[in-house]
Amino acid sequence: MAEAEQISHVEGRPTLLMFVHPRCPCSRASVGELARLLVQERGLGTVQVLFINPPGELPAWAHTDLWRQAASIPGVTVQLDQDGVEANWFGIETSGQTLLYDAGGRLLFAGGLTLSRGHAGDSPGRSALLECLAHQESVLAQTPVFGCPLFAVMNQKGALTCTP
Asked: Residues 147, 26: contact at Cβ < 8 Å?
């Protein structure tokens, strides 16, 4: 895995990254699925959830209930991605996008953990990620991501406008 500025990993262990817009209602299910996944996969290695903070916003803007939900998951490190620098570095565009790297830094999984926007429960993404963890296959598994655009413009009321 190439090193981005804020991303850390435990040598010899897998690294899982999830990128989230702190005000995306769709991502509540993604964070919930991450918690469910980590119950099954204890000791995964490094698990980081990076919350995008738009230019000009103070860090507190990203400290939403979704941030607190992610921070309450045992084994998860929650970080602020100021101006979306890390998301841009990884080429991430959608809230809930998850990446799994094996112990050697190879990308094993890129996608979403939900079946549709805001849908909690079994999904091809979660199944593929579990399969990657179990077999450490080098073939990249990819699934669709169902969430809000990370760099979406806020509507006039300050709420995130979800677009398909």
From this structure: yes
